[in-house]
Amino acid sequence: RNQDRNTGTVTAKPAEARFAPVDTAGMADTLPAGSHVKLLSERGDWVYCELPGAARAWVPRATVEKVQIEKS
Residue 60 class from Cβ within 10 Å (0-12 exposed, 13-18 middle, 19+ buried)? Predict the structure, then answer.
């Protein structure tokens, strides 16, 4: 299941999602810890994610952790 492998959880309180992968880019959203995102791509210290509500933005890599889903 490819979708399961591309899931992440925000671990920072809060994580700032931005329109571009730089600290000076406009803010798209602020995500509370525990938010689930879909990981789309990576660039340096940033991860491009589909946010809750289907918007897309860049989140610092240090604020999101990839979720490992085990098959039973």
Answer: middle
Pair of tokens at residue 18: 């931005």
Q: Count other Cβ atoms within 10 Å, centred on residue 66.
A: 12
Residue bearing tokens 């959203």: 29
Predicted model pTM: 0.85
Q: Tens-digit pLDDT profile for the chain (72 aa)?
A: 444 568 999 998 899 999 999 999 999 999 999 999 999 999 999 999 999 999 999 999 999 999 876 666
Token code pair at residue 49: 């994610």
